[in-house]
Amino acid sequence: MLRIKIICVGKLKEREYMALCEEYRKRLSRFCRAEVVQLEEQRLPDRPSKAQIADALRRESELIRAVIPRGAYTVALCVEGKGMTSEAFAGVMENAGLTADTVCFLVGGSHGLDETLKREVSLRLSFSAMTFPHHLFRVMLLEQIYRAFAINSGSHYHK
Amino acid sequence: MLRIKIICVGKLKEREYMALCEEYRKRLSRFCRAEVVQLEEQRLPDRPSKAQIADALRRESELIRAVIPRGAYTVALCVEGKGMTSEAFAGVMENAGLTADTVCFLVGGSHGLDETLKREVSLRLSFSAMTFPHHLFRVMLLEQIYRAFAINSGSHYHK
């Protein structure tokens, strides 16, 4: 069974969003072993300099790398990534599952992901040109992973 | 004060999604008079023909037109619409507010919106190439409208 590891910088606090994520995680258990790992966001002053942000992202990237299993297919979520339909994303997931036993999704904190880390991943993926809040985006990601499995299994969820 | 009217085909039933939409609607009250209108989705058989779908969409489009205020700026949400950043969307909202006193967002049901209706609107807008469920999309739309007002008011919500 494919393992899905969603590595997020920042902790979800809002009860409703936690409930929605948990619901999709439960539904995913039909298709895969899904796990959400939340890493501590590095603290920054109120008006951080570019160098302070870059340094925080670099430290976060080290925490992220430490929890990526060896040989995993890695997907970085970032606004400059490739946009695709749910069907195309389902195809990516299916292909990834042929060569890797884990697919890792990397979701940055409020300042995104480290540039070096983004160059190391298997795929840079963008859901939208628009910016969404962290908690809402996490639901969107879990739903889309669930939809991908539903598409690949021929279920009626996606029509 | 600008009026925002979100016209949706289909009713939201899920408690968590209703709570999230209501939260954004409340937050929007700082910036505008926001209203969500839910229209009945036309019933279709289990495996509808193309003609049956087109007919249902046409009937839904009549219900939608009936609740669009005269002179409103109209935005149809559809996958083939224009993608844009949150900042660009904020610009659209600001410009719309200069010429119209209402901005209407049209959100179709499970089969989308009628083709003729889509040709009549001021803007066709796409949030993503991906397909999202109706209830989740409604939260995404409300959040993005809230973000647009926050951007236009120079608030710290969007950075």
Description of the structure:
The structure is a homodimer of 159-residue chains. Chain A is of the alpha/beta class. The first copy, chain A, has helices at 15-28, 50-67, 86-99, 115-120, 134-152; strands at residues 3-9, 33-39, 73-83, 102-107, 123-126. Chain A has one domain: Alpha/beta knot (3-Layer(aba) Sandwich). Chain A has five helices and five strands; from the N terminus they run βαβαβαβαβα. Chain A is globular and about 50 Å long. Chain A binds chain B through residues 16-17, 19-20, 83-86, 88-89, 110, 127-133, 136, 139-140, 143-144, 147, 158-159, and chain B through 16-17, 19-20, 83-86, 88-89, 110, 127-133, 136, 139-140, 143-144, 147, 158-159.
List keywords for this structure.
globular, 5-stranded parallel beta sheet, 159 residues, alpha/beta, homodimer
